[in-house]
UniProtKB/TrEMBL annotation:
It comes from Rhynchospora pubera. GO terms for cellular component: apoplast. CDD domains: cupin_OxOx. This is Germin-like protein. The lineage of its organism: Eukaryota, Viridiplantae, Streptophyta, Embryophyta, Tracheophyta. The keyword Disulfide bond applies. It is found in: Secreted, Extracellular space, Apoplast.
Length: 222
């Protein structure tokens, strides 16, 4: 009985350890994503090794400043598996954030990854809200970092008078992003206005105004 109990505890510990990881461990050296097969799985199938080239492991998108000429004053260049196929099965990805003065990466969450924010230029107010409704934040200057736990609502906001640049890294090849304003007021089809008025305790005219603002809004993520 003691042996069985130990085995069960060991199995539970192994399950808890593996379930805390955003992506599973790879089973081979690499699995470059093959977007041409038409096969749909949880992830992407592997390109045949004979077709893999060095460029599959290269991504130059973070070297180019993003266009911040939009309603949010920010641009997020995503270096995930969809633009960087060599990341497939490796459990990581990287973004570049460009922020005009006063620009914001609006309230959002990443359902599949934790995030570390590293400021390259300027200064950013970075913050998240825990499930206990506690707000944690810090103004970061160049060379400083901040952690965003997986799935929590957070933002980055340029508090300086100059442009700001940050690199963000994730423990998932495809973290996903849920942008609060576009999700709530720009979904297709729209969330019923009665649900939103009751949720936010405002008149329908306020919800209609927000829907008109965000219904055709463009995401800062590219």
């Amino acid at each position: 009985m003691a042996h069985l109990r130990s085995l069960l505890l060991l199995s539970l510990a192994a399950f808890l350890f593996t379930s805390c990881r955003a992506d599973p461990d790879p089973l081979q050296d690499f699995c470059v994503a093959d977007f041409q097969t038409g096969i749909t799985i949880d992830g992407f199938p592997c390109k045949p090794a004979s077709n893999v080239v060095s460029d599959d492991f290269f991504f130059g998108g973070l070297a180019v400043a993003g266009n911040t000429n939009n309603m949010f004053g920010s641009n997020i260049t995503a270096g995930n598996v969809q633009s960087f196929p060599g990341l497939n099965t490796l459990g990581l990805s990287i973004n570049r954030g460009d922020f005009a003065p006063g620009g914001v990466n609006p309230l959002h969450s990443h359902p599949r990854a934790s995030e570390i924010v590293f400021v390259i230029e300027g200064e950013l107010l970075v913050g998240f809200i825990s499930t206990a409704n506690v707000f944690y934040s810090k103004v970061l200057k160049a060379g400083e970092s901040f952690i965003i736990p997986r799935g929590l609502v957070h933002f980055q906001y340029n508090t300086g008078k100059e442009n700001a640049v940050a690199i963000t890294a994730f423990d998932s090849q495809l973290p996903g992003v849920v942008l609060a304003p576009l999700t709530l007021f720009g979904s297709k089809p729209a969330i019923p206005i009665d649900v939103l008025t009751k949720t936010f305790q405002v008149d329908a005219s306020v919800i209609q105004l927000l829907m008109s603002k965000f219904g055709q809004a463009t995401s800062p993520y590219n």
